Amino acid sequence: MGSIDSEQETASGGSDWGPRGTAAATFAARLSFENITHVYGDLEAVRDVSLELAPGEIVCLLGPSGCGKTTLLRIAAGVERPQSGRILLNGSEIASASAFVPPERRNVGLMFQDFALFPHLTILDNVMFGLRNLERADALREAQAALRRVGMSQYEKSYPHVLSGGEQQRVALARAIVPRPAVMLMDEPFSGLDQRLREVVREETLAILRETRASCLLVTHDPVEAMWMADRIAVMREGRLVQIGTPTQVYRAPADISTAKFFCDFNELIAPARAGKVSTPFGTFKADTRKEDGSTVVLIRPQGLVPTTGKTGTQGTVLEVRYLGDATLLSLGVHGCERPIKARVPGSIVPQKGETMRFKIDPDHVLLFPAASATAIGARDGYQE
Asked: What is the pTM of this model?
């Protein structure tokens, strides 16, 4: 049986998934990383990382390529052995300088970016591969149930090469969950899918993870994906754990400027801070009075600029307009700002170039950092008093 037409699959998310609530549940485990360090030659890929997943929790490792997140996942899977520190599963040591439990004995499920299906095996045999300790009849029953849950029963006699990327991802998910792992490890599992299909597969995968109740460590470089999937997000940079918290905590109170910018584009100003207040062309904001007065980096999200009527708010001249349907992106010239200011307003507002508009600032979309912390950020907007 051939694959679904790619355009049809993109529009619909592929053939229907199985009924929710039918994936087999497991006993979730607590996964702990204690002071993990791992080096490749002269490269310190992971540096003194400590992290714990509670039973049934979904944690996303988020960061740019090369930050160490995949290395940490490979260590948890048993593909790599940590050079210092240790990994514990429900309090039992499974990897350290003195102990090493082989991957097949860790009760973890693995799902990688390339799906890693065996090309010479049928879809059913691929899913049954991890059930070799069961009697064939039992393995067959479990594998067919997993394929039904991901909506791929009709392809059980086919081979991977006839499936689309989205279909292969679903088979890989069925193979990962069928042994009922206590922990699921997922490395960029949705990155090869186009946007519409990725949203559907991501939503269904999250539903299945909740049904199985397995703990899950998911690696991604996509902040939207991390906020969608995670109970907590662990932000990594240059091998270190920079911040960990709920999606709301990390988005609203990022640890530093780089973390803030990883989640969203910003308008960036340098403004003076005096007596606990920061003055900008958009008004005055309360600064952290525990810090010394001086230059402050003011980050304003484009959606933080709210159009006003009358003569209230800061005036800007529309330089560019980009209509996106549900939103309109504006580039504005604002007195006192060296660079154009970006605004994201509702799609019902579509001004013409050259028009003037006024904006107030939603303080929930403003972040302040000492200017000294921005030395590695690069070029920044100027501020003129």
From this structure: 0.88
